[in-house]
Amino acid sequence: MILELKQINKSFDRPVLKDVDLEVQQGQIISILGKSGSGKSTLLNIIAGFETANSGSLHINEEVIFDKKKNTEPQDRNIGFVFQNYALFPHLDVKANLLFGVKNRKNKTLVKKLLEMVGLEGYEKKYPHELSGGEQQRISIARVLATDPDIILLDEPFSSVDTLLKAQIEEDLLKLIKKSRKTAIFVTHDAKEAMAISDKIAFIYNGEIIQYDTPQNIYYHPKSKVTASFFGIANFIDEQCYRLDQIHLDRQEGMYKAQLEHAVFRGEYYELHISVTVDQRQYPFIVFDQNGLHTEQEFYISLDEK
Amino acid sequence: MINRWSSFSYILTFIIILPIVLVINHALGSETQTLIHLKETVMSEYVTDTLILVLSVAFVTLILGVGTAYLTTFYQFRFAGFFVFTLALPFAIPTYIMGYVYADIFGYFNHFHLFLRSIGIEEYFNVLNIYSVIIIMSLVLYPYVYLLVRASFEKSKSALLNPALSLGSSRKKIFFKIILPLSRPAIVGSLALVMMETISEYGITEYYNIKTFTPAIFNTWFGLHDSKSATYIAVMAMVMVLIVLIIEKYNRGKADYKTEDTKAKVKKQHLKGYRLYLTYTLLSMPIVFGFIIPLIWMGVYSYEYAANILDEKFLGTLTNSFVSSSLTAFIIIVLAFFVGYTSRIFPTVMNRYLSKIISLGFTMPGAVIAIGVVMLIINIDKWLIENYITKTLFLGGTFFTLLFAYIVRFFAIGVHTVDSSLERISIDLNRASRSLGHSYFKTMIKVELPLMKNALLFGFALVFISTVKELPMTLVLRPFNYETLATKAYTLANAQMLHETSLYALGIIVISLIPLSVILLKRHV
Questions:
Q1: Which residues lie closer than 8 Å to B438 by C-beta, 6 or more apart?
Q2: In this complex, do A81 and B431 lie within 8 Å of one another by their Cβ atoms?
Q3: Which of A63, A129, A211, B250 is the most buried (most CB within 10 A)?
Q4: What is the spatial distance between Cα B70 and Cα B154, in angstroms, rounded to a whole number?
């Protein structure tokens, strides 16, 4: 196990993190997901050593990094950190930024290799302010990779990226990290993004990790209604959650009878707000329809179990 | 968690505020006979003169400072850029020098009265009174208000003038209802500086025989040899400064005075006709009386006396001023950088208060700090002699004592420039460096230091200029036979050799111009 957090607690004016446990395996890509103020950035800062937990312990490669007696300084943890605003040193050119944390400067091919890896050959002499946002991000990741860290932490790396470019940058970044075979922990507030990039997602709510699982499990089998609705439209029959792709609509036949309340036109589809009758009880559902059912008053639905 | 960085800050703060603590402690004792006598006789005069002077200077600088800032911010006219720059220049002339210049010009046998007699007016106007001091001090101190308020006007104007115009308000209404209220912190803040400087002023009040606190402290201490009463008056001066600071603090209240930084282009109004000439006249007055006339006076008499004065002794004095000021500025900037960096990397509540506590010296009149430093040094020397470590005075009367007093007095300038510059550097850069394997110290040298180079130079220049001009502490604490440009000008003026002061005054302005030009060349701090 490369990283292990046990019973981490942290409070400022109020408790921010409560008994947080987390285990990460070598080479995994993990997302810490939650809305703003949930404590996710604090957790990342505690792993990096920028902030100190009130109690608990932290291990890297089975070695204690932080506990009651010990608190290893950030510079001695061998953890790379990619900042939200990239934090490139504005007074240094790209080459000097890349070599900033490198102890053995004799390796002349290193800068070239790094720039090749991030697809920015020939950028050695440029200054951070001459780079676009995406380029700055790639340099900041190359700078971290240059020091060969055990773990890379990334704080909302896509938050300042243009929505149109986001998918491409997301893909590039993921490729880079996979290629380097590093363990990576992302912090994000975007569930879609977390599902797209992670092996496992730690969903954090009010300072507690309430579910830590694969994207598929957390999506189809959320442990609470809060988790369920954070990951997209969730319909419930009692405690059972049904996602959009588990619901099939039909005019003539199906498991349950549904009544249309109202329909919203969304371009590619209609969003239907319906009332489903199960065992003589009514459940409100939201479903998508591409077959013109929005004109009907009544139809049927069938449900998949996954 | 107290680490090495914080411990260093704590110890430094303790040493720097020790003199002030000693003064307060000394004053809070039983009353001496002299003090009772002073209270019965002149004490009320000290209080009234100080109050009249402080309030009047504040009022006049308010009018001059806000007026000049308003005209140069909101109106477009030829040579506007020239006025923006030159309006700050009177700042370079020490108050006491300006006092000597006008005392000379209005002397019975001199320029002004010679001219009056030549046109048949025999009347004598004595200028050695409190009204002249008010005008002269205002001429020197209004640039504080002008510079700070102008910066605030510029900022709120570009953020809010266009939105307000689009809502249909008139320019006059916008100024009085939006821009002026938004600049309240800048106005009150700069007036607080003006008032503190006024309470602290020594040279001019003494020459014009105005009984404010600072000359009172000196008279009691050296004239009546009563240090207890002197510290008592010093504490009264402190209390007055504290009242000013409390008013400044609470004036802000709950309202948020921050505006967004914008680069919106805002059209200035063009001035034409009589309003243009009126503006020229109004803007020229402080420059002519606050800078040009004193400069001409200095030039003329420097030329006349240069042959007599310009010798090795003069160069020695010039060197003393230069060396003491550079050394003070260098030490302050290095130490302030350490303190500022410490509270950046360990942002504990204690560390944040430290920069406030360590800045106390700037709010104290120089005379008060001088007393505190003397008391501290006497105690250390006494202890050293009693314990047979030295046989004679080890620190008393040395250059070290003077240097220490300068550091106590001007540390706030260093802290302020360092803090405001550190604030603008993202903490993420520090964290990035550390997560890339560098220690706190190495990060400071490799990241913060190069990024703050210009701001540190700026702080150095500000401390340097303040130290060159410093008079009361230097007079009390300098080693035997040690002269700076300021003390020499003071001694000559008090020996009624006003014209001979011109070269020393010019020296002060010339060596202030060296760091000043550094600031102006590196405007982007």
A1: A75, A100, A101, B446
A2: yes
A3: A211
A4: 10
**Which run of H or of E encompasses B236?**
helix B227-251
A258 touches chain B (CB under 8 A): no
Q: Classify burial at A172, counting beta carbons within 10 Å of its beta carbon; exposed 0-12, middle 13-18, buried 19 or more.
A: middle
Nearest to B431 among A74, A89, A143 (CB): A74
Using alpha carbons only, what angle is made at residue A190 by residues A186 and A191, rounded to the nearest 5 degrees? 95
pLDDT of residue A181: 86
Mean pLDDT of A7-11: 95
CB A186, CB A197: distance < 8 Å: yes
What kind and span of H or E run contains A32?
strand A29-33
The single-letter code of the amino acid at B362 is: F
Q: What is the pLDDT of residue B525?
A: 38
The band of B265, judged by pLDDT with boundaries at 50, 70 and 90, is: low
- pLDDT higher than threshold 70 for residue B465: yes
**What are the structure tokens assigned to A84, written together?**
């939200």
Query: Using H for helix, E for strand and C for coil, what is the string for B276-291?
Result: HHHHHHHHHHHHHHHH
Contact B428/A83, CB-based, under 8 Å?
Answer: yes
Closest CA to A37 of A233, A162, A187: A187
Q: Is A80 helix (H, G, I), strand (E, B) or coil?
A: strand
The residue-averaged pLDDT of B418-440 equals 91
CA–CA separation, A4 vs A23, rounded Å? 5
Q: Can you give the pLDDT at residue B253?
A: 61
Find the mean pLDDT for residues A277-287. Answer: 92
pLDDT at B524: 41
**Is residue B329 a contact partner of residue B406, using CB atoms and an 8 Å limit?**
no
Residue A288: left if φ>0, alpha if ψ -120 to 50, beta else—which one?
beta
Give the span between the Cα atoms of B189 and B134, in whole angstroms.
20
Distance from CA of A213 to the nearest CA of B (A): 28
Task: Indicate the helix (H) or strand (E) that contains B467.
Answer: helix B449-469
Query: In this predicted model, which residue has the larger pLDDT, B521 or B369?
Result: B369
Q: Which of A118, A187, A114 is nearest to A154 (CA)?
A: A187
pLDDT tens profile B217-232: 888 888 887 878 888 8
A82 pLDDT more than 50: yes
d(CA A6, CA A22): 7
Fold of B31-295: MetI-like fold (1.10.3720)
Residues of chain B found within 8 Å of residue A44, distances taken between Cβ atoms: none
Beta-carbon separation of B436 and A103 below 8 A: no
Q: What is the 3-state secondary structure (H, E, C) of B199-222?
A: HHCCHHHHHCCCCCHHHHHHHHHH
Please state, in angstroms and rounded to a whole number, the distance separating the CA atoms of residues B383 and B481. 26
Q: Which two tokens stand for residue A72?
A: 């290893």
* pLDDT score of B522: 61
Domain boundaries, chain B: 31-295, 309-525
Give me the CATH topology for the region B309-525: MetI-like fold (1.10.3720)
Which strands make up the sheet holding A183-188, listed edge to edge? Answer: A79-82, A151-155, A183-188, A29-33, A200-205, A208-213
Chain A: nearest CA to B254, how far in angstroms? 22
Name the percent of chain B lying above pLDDT 90: 33
Give φ, ψ of B247 to 5 degrees. -60, -45
